[in-house]
Amino acid sequence: MTNPRILGKTPRFTDRYDDSDVPWIPVRSQRNGDGSESHVWEKWVAFCVEPMYLALFARWDAGMIVRKHGHFSPHVLIVLEGEFRCGERLCGPGSHIELPLGADFGPFVAGPTGVHLYEVMMGDPRSWSDDPEAMSRTLAEHGVTQLPDPHIDLPAGLKDLRQVYEKAEEIEPL
């Protein structure tokens, strides 16, 4: 085996509290029953194309709902602050979720103070979902209206799949 060192490569440091280098971007939006809006905010601290992976901090506003979904890669996340429900399970600070390739999880509902996460997708980070009814039921239960997803710029010409509902095997990954 050959030493993989590349001369001149150095670590990159990012702080979730310092927005000067990497901004928080909205990636999901909803209108709550009281007329207010909630969002999922992400800070993409590492988005590499070769090999493909994404590491991010996420901040969900109180009551934010995210569809039941899976990813085109293994995915892990850790709850840093606050809480959310993943399906029927309540996940608070220190909770770790491993989502193996081919599995799905959710729907998610952020708790009364929201939730802060650290997430890593080890491959194509885009998501798939084949259960729009689960999302519709969860939105109705909470009196929430999903708003259009804010625009995001994905690298390498990746197509945005946030609102695609079809069987995972029918979506063509990279």
Summarize the entry for a quick read.
The protein contains one helix and eleven strands, in the order ββββββββββαβ. 6% of the residues lie in helices and 43% in strands.
Keywords:
nine-stranded antiparallel sheet, 6% helix, two-stranded antiparallel sheet, 174 residues, 1 helix, Jelly Rolls
Write up this protein.
It is a single chain. By secondary structure, this protein is mainly beta. It has a single domain (25-150), classed as Jelly Rolls. 6% of the residues lie in helices and 43% in strands. The protein is built from 1 helix and 11 strands; from the N terminus they run ββββββββββαβ. It has one helix spanning 132-141; strands at residues 25-31, 37-49, 52-60, 65-66, 70-72, 75-86, 89-91, 96-99, 108-121, 124-128, 145-146. The longest helix is centred in the C-terminal third of the chain and has 10 residues, at 132-141. The two termini are 29 Å apart. The mean pLDDT is 93.
Which residues form runs of ≥5 with pLDDT under 50? none
Measured between the Cα atoms of the first and last residue, the distance is: 29 Å
Mind describing the biggest β-sheet?
9 strands, antiparallel
Whole-number count of domains: 1
What helical percentage do the residues reach? under 10%
Classify the beta-strand content into a percent band: 35-45%
Total number of helices: 1
Count the beta strands.
11
CATH superfamily heading = Jelly Rolls
By CATH, the architecture is named Sandwich
CATH topology: Jelly Rolls
CATH class: Mainly Beta
| Average pLDDT over all residues | 93
Rg over CA atoms, rounded to whole Å, is: 17 Å
Q: Which structural class matches the secondary elements?
A: mainly beta
The run of helices and strands is EEEEEEEEEEHE
The global form is: globular
